[in-house]
Design goal:
Helix content is about 80%, strand content about 0%. The relative contact order is 0.14.
């Protein structure tokens, strides 16, 4: 990858594509405290957005998966709203909720929410009914059935959906951090671009990619921790 980058740098020979060594040097000379603040804000927004999407998506998805009546009621709503490109809603969300943290977190939540709802619903539907019958025969209640059957059945598709959706969520985070904030990796990258400090801009892009990579690792850790039966 670095070899290709260097070859492109030699061929293009313009300041818009700096030498990869200059970019790595720029990364080493960045203010550690400042970068930590930017990364911290980005991670906070992603974390809160994912948690909210999980709470709502898990609740609605399980309700639809376990109740044919609610599935029939909510199916049209989900199918009508799911195909809408969520990035197109960014101006609407900002009009209603302003340019602050709320709109940024809501956009991430919207990106993940419908995918989680559909995945959880399908995952719960796929659980054989006789699995619940076995637990009923030994006197298990609704909470025990949920904890030992429904949640593990839904968790697999939840983690898969989060892993797939994180890339899109991070892309949306970049756009939301351009407006109404002075913190976040999106702001850092655009600020470097406006200052024509291209080495710092590419360094920011690489760090942003590293944030995404760490989030993927977190999902893998959760899968290893809670789904050892799949190892």
């Amino acid at each position: 990858m670095n070899v290709i980058w260097y070859l492109l740098y030699v061929i293009i020979n313009k300041t818009i594509l700096p030498n990869p060594l200059d970019v790595y040097a720029s990364m080493l000379h960045l203010d550690g405290k400042e970068i930590a603040i930017h990364i911290g804000y980005s991670l906070f927004r992603v974390f809160v957005g994912v948690v909210l999407a999980l709470i709502l998506g898990l609740s609605v998805g399980i309700l639809m998966g376990r109740s044919p009546r609610w599935n029939k009621i909510l199916d049209p709503v989900v199918y009508l709203t799911y195909p809408i490109p969520k990035i197109a809603l960014l101006p609407v969300v900002m009009l209603f909720f302003g340019l602050g943290e709320t709109s940024k977190i809501l956009m991430i939540m919207l990106i993940l929410l419908f995918q989680i709802i559909i995945s959880v619903r399908d995952g719960v539907k796929a659980i054989p009914n006789d699995t619940y019958d076995v637990l009923s025969s030994i006197g298990a209640g609704k909470v025990q059935k949920f904890w030992h059957v429904t949640l593990p059945g839904a968790l697999s598709v939840i983690l898969s959906t989060i892993r797939i959706s994180l890339g899109t969520a991070i892309s949306v985070l970049f756009f939301t951090e351009i407006y109404g904030t002075e913190y976040g990796m999106g702001y850092f990258i655009m600020d470097a671009w406006l200052r024509m400090n291209y080495s710092e801009m590419y360094a920011g892009i690489m760090l942003f990619s590293l944030v995404g990579f760490l989030l993927f690792l977190c999902v893998d850790v959760l899968e290893h921790r809670f789904m050892k039966w799949r190892q």
